[in-house]
C-alpha cells in the first residue's frame, strides 16, 4: 500500500530527495514539503482511490505515511500491522 500511496502523493511533493527516502515515519509537511492545500488534495485522491470517506478528525491525524496508512486501513476494515513491529 505504500507504493500506491507514493503514486498518489508524488505530484504534490516539493522535496524529491525526501520522497526518494519515503518510509512510514515520513511527514508530509515537514519532510516532503507538501503544503496544507495539497495535503487536502492528497486526502481527496486517497478517498477516490479506495472509495472511502475520511472524516475531518481522521484527516487531522494524517500527517505521516504511517498515520495515513492506519486511517485508510481502518476505513477499509483492515488492521494495519507496521512492518517495523
Automatic annotation (TrEMBL):
Coiled coil: none
Pfam families in the cross-refs: PP-binding
Chain ranges passing through the membrane: none
SUPFAM superfamilies in the record: ACP-like
InterPro entries in the cross-refs: ACP-like_sf (IPR036736), PP-bd_ACP (IPR009081)
Residues annotated as domain Carrier: 1-76
Name of protein: Acyl carrier protein
Amino acid at each position: 500500500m505504500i507504493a500506491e500511496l507514493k503514486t498518489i502523493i508524488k505530484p504534490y511533493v516539493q522535496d524529491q530527495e525526501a520522497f526518494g527516502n519515503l518510509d512510514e515515519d515520513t511527514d508530509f509537511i515537514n519532510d516532503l514539503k507538501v503544503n496544507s492545500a495539497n495535503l487536502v488534495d492528497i486526502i481527496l485522491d486517497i478517498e477516490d482511490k479506495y472509495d472511502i470517506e475520511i472524516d475531518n478528525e481522521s484527516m487531522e491525524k494524517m500527517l505521516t505515511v504511517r498515520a495515513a496508512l492506519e486511517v485508510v486501513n481502518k476505513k477499509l476494515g483492515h488492521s494495519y500491522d507496521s512492518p517495523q513491529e
